[in-house]
Amino acid sequence: MKIIQTKDYAELSRRAAELIAAQVREKPDCVLGLATGSSPVGTYEELRRLCREEGLDFSRVRSVNLDEYVGLGGTDDQSYRYFMDSNLFDHVNIDKANTHVPNGRNPDAEAECAAYDAMIEALGGIDLQLLGLGPNGHIGFNEPDEVFTLPTHRVALTESTIRANKRFFEREEDVPRFAYTMGIGAIMRARRVVMVVNGPKKAEAVRRAFFGPVTPQVPASILQLHPDFTLVADAAALGL
Ligand code: GLP
């Protein structure tokens, strides 16, 4: 595990975007695993700038996102498809047909999850997976559990995640209770993993995930075993 400590969020976003840009330059048709949440917003902003001002070329890039809320479609402004379109895809020269987010509108969980894993496999796996960190140590929507779940699966969100994510919705009742999430398998098979974490509220989760035992109770802790994992975190998130 490699740790890049930055002084603030702006530097964190630049450093993470540089790692992704280097991947795109090295392999123009790479498969990027992408994440939502507030943490990577600055990273996407910097990637947009690199595309606009420095000609970073996304035309052959393929992408797979970690997760989606069950029940939400791409035009719903709380959906992760909408987030990706508005934060990145609509502003860079990526071909939308090459961007993949689980279909939250598919009521057949088994079929949706199996198709998503088959699609990742058909793309040749993920070259670089970007992650955020949930306050309870979750990655994607892999919540604390008795076991690490490997395939893409439907998950019931924990109360703490529903509370953490309600800031994006008008009312807590509006937060979907289920999500489809890529499992630990595809994340751990990614050839490279980069996580962005900022702020004092994440310090405890960082401590438990990367300075404690590997346990499915803290899903991100499995990344301690990944051969090419880089944590990009500001000083506050590394405070403990
Ligand atoms: C959500 C997403 C995760 C994300 C987490 C943290 O639950 N499914 O992928 O890492 O939130 O979000 P934030 O970056 O806003 O703290």
Q: Can you walk through the features of this model?
A:
- It is a single chain.
- The chain is 31% helix and 18% strand.
- The chain has helices at 9-26, 41-54, 80-87, 109-122, 159-165, 184-189, 203-210, and strands spanning 2-6, 31-34, 62-65, 67-69, 99-100, 128-131, 153-156, 178-181, 192-197, 229-234.
- Helix 2 links the parallel strand 2 and strand 3.
- The two termini are 17 Å apart.
- 2-amino-2-deoxy-6-O-phosphono-alpha-D-glucopyranose (GLP) binds next to helix 5.
- Residues 35-39, 66-67, 132-134, 140-141, 161, 165 line the site of 2-amino-2-deoxy-6-O-phosphono-alpha-D-glucopyranose (GLP).
Outline of the structure:
The protein has 240 residues and is an alpha/beta fold.
Largest sheet: 7 strands, parallel
Helix proportion range = 25-40%
Strand order of the largest sheet: 1-10-9-6-2-3-5
Beta fraction: 15-25%
Question: How would you spell out the order of helices and strands?
Answer: EHEHEEHEHEEHEHEHE
Number of strands: 10
User: Helix tally?
Assistant: 7
Structural class: alpha/beta
